[in-house]
Task: structure prediction
Amino acid sequence: MTDPAPEPGHVLTRVALGAGLWVVLVTAAGGLLAAVGGWSPWVGWPVAVLAAAGSVAAVRGLPGVRVGAGAAAAMVALVAGFAVYAGVTHSEHVLPRRDAASNLQAAVSLAATHERVVPVDPSVIGGPGPLERGDVTVQSAAFYQVGSPASPAVQPQFLLAPAVVYGYGVWVGGPPLAQWLPAVVMALVLLVVGLFAAHLAGPWWGVAATGLTAVLFPVLNVARGTYSEQLALLTLAGGLLAVTLAVGRVGRPVERLAVLGGVLVGGTGLARVDALREVLLLVPFLAVGAALGHRWVRPAALGLVASSVVAWALALGLSYRYLGDIHASLLPLAAIAVVVLAGSVAGLWLWRRGRRLPAALTGRLPGAVAALTLAVGVGLWTRPWWMTVRQDPSDPGAVYVAGMQRRQGLPVDGGRTYAEHTVDWLSWYVGWVALVVALLALAALLRRAFRALDDGRLVPWAPVLVVAVGSTVLTLLRPGITPDHPWADRRLLIMLPFVVVLVVVAAAWAARRLTASGRRWGTPLVAVVTVLAVGVPAVLATWPFRGVGVERGSLAAARDVCAVLEPDDVVLGIDGRASSEWPQTVRGMCGRPFFVATTPVRKDPHRLAALVAEVARGAASSGHRLVVLAADGPEAIEGLGLTPRSVVDIRFPEEEHALDRPPRRTDLGGVRVSVAEVPAR
Result:
């Protein structure tokens, strides 16, 4: 007698969890091998196959979310359609202006060189002299110079997961294929969101959550670029789903679910540093589970610790310059980690020794938590009326904000972070009705969760509630990003799906109440109202950007620049954009050495001319030819007495930059590149 076919919902759950585990496994292996220069296709593809086999084995037979065939088919159709649409309309983030392009160039570099930190040979410019004097650097936007002037190297800024995962696309079809992969990853994230909603509210409500999340502009915008957020969301949401499914169950599959959940949540740190926040938020929940005697807590904790250790070891070893740059944010987070861990352990120790809160207090706690939730929500909403959040006006981000304020006709106050408006940011994409309903639903769910806890029970959806609520509040208080929309909207990618799920849960509750009272039209009516309440604001915000993504033509521009360079050319960037956007592009996509004249040299025409002549002689002495590259215009080349050759001059749409409102259109950007050969004299 053969085993019955698994339920469709179980299959979808295993696909989503397996995909997240694959990301963690290949990134961990890729990081370890890239540290020693061994991440070649001959190694990477077997690792991918082994990771896939291991992921399939890990999720085989696991329980999943109950979703029938019809709802499962609808969910798959939605996520597949989203992947195709977002992929076809993807942006071409190639030149490192934003994180997406930086991640793409890191993927190109890793795929081509097989190592994370790539050495640069200074002998091609005659030796390390210019580097030692500080006249030349190999550093550029999102790529650090590390090592000594005699033995410099280039270290990418961000963490490993985007470079490893998107690097597979580079190996198969170059950067164009790599730029399709983010859409596929985000589609898997939508699948997890739908499964969560189905688990909480019912299968067809899960379909509704999938569709409503898919039309949110920040979700689509990130899916069009090689960002890290979708990779982090896949592992984080998948891990929380696994832990949710483990709560309340017993047996070996539950232990595997728990381990998998811990590995996925901790493994989120392979994609984003701020994932430490979500790890911390899960720790108190694990302590409560341990106090109540749940057997899944130990395997979940082991998985969480193991993957977190690997993630942070790789970050410290291969992205230490980046961690040093953001230490002002990391150190408080690390201090909070110590406090949370110590508090959780102390609370568990006291519990096991019979210490309990007074019954009168625990009985009132559910209502108090619900009231506090409403108060915090109202407080965050009203912040613009009584608070203006500022940062150090000398911070580089503040200088950038001041420039934006001048261009947009706003009062110039570069120190403003606009963080008091974060609830407004949410309203731009889901509307105020959805936010009010979500807040009420959140208060009700927290009240229910604490009531169950007072009875010695954990509700299954407690882990996602704890992590999502904590992450949402912390991000609303301090988004930690330059308030440049749609750039800043990436910070909303945990909150927005959470709001959608809360609204869907509230809608399902209302529909059940109406149906139970004999009103059969209740469910269709509530469904229509929900779709309109969330969908209309979402579609209105997304509609102006329904066409293709931004910076289309950047890949062709990079190919044109590569085409004019000879095999023995060495390139020197001599103006601002050339020194920021093109060094890693030329190194990675063209395979040519690229050095940058430092800012003090570029500002002094005599020093720049002397440096160019020196580097040209050094290049010639080692059998190379120096080519200077300008991207602000040909004037820098003309100032050297050389004749510029125009290589690229294109215009394309780019993101509109807005501070006090949502983006409504695209701006016109472009690329202009001129080069000139420098004869040795």
Notes: The first helix runs from residue 8 to 34. The two ends are 86 Å apart (CA to CA). The chain has 27 helices and nine strands.
